[in-house]
Amino acid sequence: MRQPLTGWIARWALFQDGCAMHSPTTERARYLRNNMTETECRVWSRLRNRQVGGYKFRRQVPVGPYFVDFLCISARLAIEVDGPLHEDDADQRKTEWLQKAGYRVVRVPAVDVDESFDDVIHGIYLDLTEPRLPTVWGGHPREARVGWGDPNYFSSSKRMELASLGLACGARLRTSATRACIACFLPAR
To answer: Phi and psi (nearest 5°) for 83?
Structure first.
């Protein structure tokens, strides 16, 4: 039985005017990389070339149906720079999807980058290098994480102790002193 003569036709279809055609995802990522905002360019100038803790970042990376501003694949850390035009609902759906896919998401308002750029980069460095608080995984490893950010993670007495220290269960912990303080309230394993 003869094979259909589709090999050269399939290869010919990949080319248009002698150039390879890229997928729409690749074209969109390329467009986003070439048209970054000034704030994103400033952040990229410090994340590129392994300048932050030796971690490699990529910019405008397609992950599933979304594009992530900056992504460290080895640490599974996604950084999103939120400008004034970002939509809260769409950002929330994107964050939830990335967390279910196993990524940690750090959202940085553009105003923070403009006002305290070094603090933002230092916060990214801390997220990369400091040990993370323990998390409890449900069933499948790709399911959403339930951890210290979930109000139901702590017993009511532990939540009251945290509240007396001025810490909300979902509070963002930036300093190692705060992380060490809350570590004593984590449930025993």
So the answer is: -85, -175
